[in-house]
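[09:14] KT: can someone run the structure on this one? pasting the chain below
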Amino acid sequence: MDATQLGNEVNTFLSQLAAWAAVALPQLVSAVVLLLVGLWFAGWADRSVRRVLTNRVEPTLCGVLGSVVRYGILVIVLVAVLGQIGIQTTSILAALGAAGLAIGLAMQGTLSNIAAGMMLLWLRPFRVGDYIDTGSVAGTVKELGLFASELHTWDGVFLFVPNSQLWNTRVLNYSRLPTRMVDLKFGVAYNDDLPKGQQVLLQLVTSDARIQPDPAPIVFVNELGDSAVELALRFWVANADYWTLRREMTERGKSELEAAGLSIPFPQRDVHVLPVNGGPQMQLAQSS
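[09:31] RB: done, structure tokens below
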């Protein structure tokens, strides 16, 4: 190839390159600008969603919704950028749809946990710091995540529970309501003064400022047992004082009843030896 032919080839290549650049460069520049604007808009939308939802929903839900909005915008921007530079997006969208379906079928358990996490975050049957019991797990909620939740038991055990197990079951929330009822039982003898015992227990709780006056404390005969009459003492306290007052009033109730002359009986078994046919024979008789 001589110099003249080489020069013609170079000129032809440069002419074709210039013609391509005249068409492609504006599209490429517009695609880059669209991508930059889309990235900025996705970040702005994420921050706006978090700011609007702050103090309205759970902090974890704010982050999740913000991320969903951000990545949704990024997917739309990416498809628009590919279309801007001349790439057919129909086949890409079809491939992404098929891949999403395959991934969804392979991750049914994970997706169910995500769906359960979203419902828990939205409906909020419990919050961080609440003590809950589902029958199979119980503990204080330390973190409510999108896939699983972290609970700590009363004896210091770490629990990592998938959200689907917390959603598809009954949840007892012991921390949600501000007050709780304490229900105590005291057994007294059948020959004791029942009105006096009721008065002693009622004075015990009404004299304590931590006991809620409304609903008012009550004392009543709950059951006639085999060896004792059961007095029930019910009163309402602040949720934070529940266990402290339950333990304290159980101990003080026993002491006050005994100080008032009432006895707290317990089952006893007396053994009587009776003569039968000239010889001793033991007969068991239960009494209190």
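[09:33] KT: thanks! The chain has three domains: 9-106, 125-173, 179-259.
[09:34] RB: yep, looked fine to me
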